[in-house]
Amino acid sequence: MIDIQQLIDFDKELLLFLNGNHSLFWDGFMWVVTKTVTWIPAILMLLYVIVKSNKLNQVFLILLMIALTVVLADRISSGFFKPFFARFRPAQDPDIMYLVHIVNGYRGGLYGFVSSHAANTFAVAMFVSLLIKDWRFTVMMFLWAMIPSYSRIYLGVHYPGDILCGALLGCVVALLVYSLYSFITRKLSKSNLYVVAPCKSSSRIYRREDVNLLILILFLSYFYAIVMGMIKAKMLCF
Questions:
Q1: Diameter of the chain by CA atoms?
Q2: CA distance linking residue 188 with residue 184, whole number of Å
Q3: How far is CA 54 from CA 47, 71, 203, 207, in A?
Q4: Which among 209, 171, 212, 221 has a CA at the least distance from the CA of 37?
Q5: Which letter does DSSP use for residue 90 in this model?
Q6: pLDDT, tens digit (0-9, with 9 covering 90-100), for 57-107
Q7: φ and ψ at 111, to 5 degrees?
Q8: Is residue 146 classed exposed, middle or buried when 0-12, 13-18 and 19+ CB atoms within 10 A define those classes?
């Protein structure tokens, strides 16, 4: 039988180990990747690819489903899990808060289980990976979800368990919403209101060169984060 207290204690020990391995560069890098603004170019490119590759009614449906995915992941994590479990964030936990390495004095809100960052990013990664069926894009999207999620551990505002459970929540939400999207797509296609037949593969809808460009923008976003991390590290020295 699993001892919940042992899991909690292990979670704290793992947090202190991971959070304790820090440097000025990683302080800067993690501070940059955790910010939503860093990923705006990639988000805009994703929107461009979706709009370019689909008819107008499809675009509206896809964007609606992505919005639903994010809203559900965010509200379930922040609106239900956090107040229900009321688990302190590491940087707010009276037992270890002064042992936790924080950056720029940032400690986050009071409760952290589950991580909304992890839930939201993994939800988006899962949904768009099911939408644009390209293994390279899938790898990049889940890498995108993992690194900002890990940054929350590095910054001391989430336990590893918060991230893991948030990621699982996000993936489940995305799978459910994608199932709804597929159901609506089939219904619309039968009514001749949808252009793409339900049997048509998404990999043929989204052109390889568009997917390659999207992957490139994700790479460049990480390059930007590395450069800004170096700049931020120098700023933190003073």
A1: 64
A2: 6
A3: 11, 23, 12, 11
A4: 221
A5: G
A6: 899 999 999 999 999 999 999 999 999 999 999 999 998 999 999 988 899
A7: -110, 150
A8: middle
